[in-house]
């Protein structure tokens, strides 16, 4: 693939120059109508009035966002105070996603580095081994994690059997279980970009550092890490973004006390108790945060590219 | 680079962390696979090897529900993967063989949109969209949503493959008086086969595995395997769920493995 990319990349082929409009039309139509269109529609819905049995009334209202950020008392007649309930849920989501990202980095960086320093022909096999679990149904992976970690589960049985602990450790329904679940869900997203960056790294730089009496850890910290930073940043974003909006890990592993944004949004569209404009507004807040992070990362990446060339 | 001493490159402990990483990734799946063969009624005690829970999936009290769900899941996955692969192949041809054009960045942004927008947001947006246009939720809404979000998964391996194929093959064919259509179907498509197959397989798995978007757009009464499994798991993990999970897990692993070997094969040499 690498050789082909090099030979085909010089001048852009334009055999289908005159037909590209027709060729792109199906993807534009499907994604425009069924992804971009709905997101715009969701923005509109977040400014509508809620219908009590689910759905909306077509009447402009700011109440969804108002409810999200402000508390005006039970009857809406008290002076507005900042509403902490939903901000807390958002903050917890950010915190949990951050912890999962850190966990992925601590485990994923050495893994990616190790794979990138293997002989060239075995690297794809290692990468393949890391990515297989990602392609297994996320629901099944999360359920499996719960099965393994629960109080009477195989992990606790094993630890009690070996005499390391006397009574089961409660992991399910804690913050840590959610972090572990998120880590498990998105780890390949950390390993792959870091691996790609380390593979491009020129190891003679490490040798030069060693010749100049730098210790191995100093070399890692001062030479390798700055060189592969774009890969690390990309990996962190790829883990953080889906973690923040995840639904399955907090729902199955976290229990009711560890509510995250995904569950808050989901609840608004279930049954008759929901509030569609509020759910749409919460989704908009989440989407805005994600887009800000992605724009920031795109800028970082562009900066790294110009610095590199 | 090849001359750099391995002592300088390698770090003590990194191998151990990599192995730990693999253990963490595979342990839950292996354990569930093992326990799916448990003869016991309870999920906690091990009482020997048995296929009773696999039999239960096909003939037990919940078998009708699972059969319908499996039918829905597989038909949706096949149709959605076929449609999104076709759409992605056309888009890749324009993007890779269409010269430079202004809307290229916008097009790429639109194609990768389902990867950037959090899945739960796409789910909410799609639900709202179908509600607003007054479309009853059911099999068809799931199918349409799946076709849309599978496009980037099919597109990435297909366009990567096309970038790796020099256009000199097609140029040579056209110099020898092949029409462009002939060059496309007889030269480019056969060379593209590995990319198209792996794009199709990835789209198939992504559709088969999707829970969040399906859960929002499915409507009452229509279930796919993931939503049926989720419904059961809410009341606790049962042994028959582990059996059905193991089967679904095997399908994914087999498909990814095929995709891996297909995309590795190089028929341009």
Report on the architecture of this protein.
Chain A is mainly α. Chain A has a domain at 92-275: Orthogonal Bundle (MetI-like fold), CATH 1.10.3720.10. Helix content of chain A is 70%, strand content 4%. Chain A contains 14 helices and 4 strands. Chain A has helices at 2-8, 20-45, 63-69, 84-116, 123-135, 138-149, 154-161, 175-200, 204-211, 216-227, 229-244, 248-254, 261-268, 276-308, and strands spanning 48-50, 56-60, 70-71, 81-82. In chain A, the strands form 2 sheets. Chain A has a two-stranded antiparallel ribbon with strand order 1-2. In chain A, a hairpin with a 5-residue loop joins β1 (48-50) and β2. With 269 residues, chain B is mainly alpha-helical. The chains are: A mainly alpha (309), B mainly alpha (269).
Spatial order of strands in the largest sheet of chain A: 1-2
Oligomer: heterodimer
**Mind summarizing the main beta sheet of chain B?**
none
Question: How far is the first residue's CA from the last residue's CA of chain A?
Answer: 22 Å
| Low-confidence blocks of residues of chain A | 1-10
Note the total helix count of chain B.
Answer: 12
Shape of chain B: globular
In short:
With 309 residues, chain A is mostly helical.
């Amino acid at each position: 693939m690498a050789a082909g990319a090099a030979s085909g990349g010089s001048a852009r082929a334009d055999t289908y120059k005159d037909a590209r409009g027709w060729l792109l039309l199906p993807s534009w139509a499907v994604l425009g109508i069924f992804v971009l269109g709905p997101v715009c529609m969701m923005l509109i819905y977040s400014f509508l009035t809620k219908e009590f049995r689910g759905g909306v009334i077509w009447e402009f209202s700011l109440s969804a966002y108002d409810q999200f950020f402000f508390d005006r008392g039970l009857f809406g007649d008290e002076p507005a105070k900042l509403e902490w309930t939903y901000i807390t849920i958002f903050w917890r989501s950010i915190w949990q996603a951050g912890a999962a990202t850190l966990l992925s980095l601590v485990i994923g960086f050495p893994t990616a580095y190790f794979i990138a320093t293997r002989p060239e022909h075995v690297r794809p096999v290692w990468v393949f081994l890391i990515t297989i679990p990602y392609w297994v149904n996320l629901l099944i992976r999360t359920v499996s994690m719960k099965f393994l970690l629960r109080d009477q589960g195989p992990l606790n049985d094993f630890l009690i059997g070996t005499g390391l602990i006397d009574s089961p450790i409660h992991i399910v329904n804690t913050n840590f279980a959610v972090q572990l679940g998120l880590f498990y869900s998105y780890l390949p997203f950390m390993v792959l970009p870091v691996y790609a960056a380390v593979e491009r790294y020129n190891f003679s730089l490490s040798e030069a550092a060693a010749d100049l009496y730098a210790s191995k850890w100093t070399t890692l910290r001062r030479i390798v890490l700055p060189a592969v930073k774009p890969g690390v940043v990309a990996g962190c974003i790829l883990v953080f973004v889906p973690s923040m909006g995840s639904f399955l890990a907090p729902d199955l592993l976290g229990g009711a006390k560890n509510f995250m944004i995904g569950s808050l949004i989901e609840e608004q569209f279930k049954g008759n108790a929901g509030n569609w404009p509020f759910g749409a507004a919460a989704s908009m807040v989440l989407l805005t945060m994600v887009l800000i992070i992605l724009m920031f990362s795109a800028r970082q990446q562009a900066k790294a590219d110009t610095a590199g060339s | 680079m090849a001359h750099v001493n391995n002592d300088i490159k390698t770090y003590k402990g990194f191998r151990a962390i990599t192995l730990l990483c693999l253990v963490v990734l595979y342990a839950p799946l292996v354990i569930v696979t093992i326990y799916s063969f448990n003869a016991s009624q309870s999920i906690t005690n091990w009482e020997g090897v048995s296929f009773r829970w696999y039999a239960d999936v096909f003939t037990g009290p919940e078998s009708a529900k699972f059969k319908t769900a499996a039918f829905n899941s597989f038909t949706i996955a096949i149709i959605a993967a076929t449609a999104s692969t076709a759409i992605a192949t056309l888009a890749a041809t324009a993007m890779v063989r269409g010269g430079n054009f202004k809307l290229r960045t916008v097009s790429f942004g639109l194609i990768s949109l389902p990867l950037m927008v959090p899945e739960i947001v796409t789910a909410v947006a799609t639900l709202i969209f179908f509600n607003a246009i007054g479309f009853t939720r059911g099999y068809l809404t799931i199918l349409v949503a799946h076709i849309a979000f599978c496009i980037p998964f099919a597109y990435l391996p297909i366009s990567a493959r096309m970038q790796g194929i020099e256009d000199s093959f097609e140029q040579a064919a056209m110099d020898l008086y092949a029409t462009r259509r002939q060059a496309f179907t007889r030269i480019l498509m056969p060379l593209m086969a590995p990319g198209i197959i792996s794009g199709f397989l990835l789209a198939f798995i992504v559709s088969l595995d999707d829970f969040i978007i399906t859960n929002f757009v499915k409507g009452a009464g229509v279930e796919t395997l993931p939503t049926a499994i989720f419904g059961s798991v809410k009341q606790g993990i049962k042994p028959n769920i582990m059996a059905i999970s193991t089967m679904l897990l095997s399908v994914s692993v087999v498909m990814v493995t095929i995709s891996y070997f297909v995309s590795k094969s190089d028929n341009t040499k």
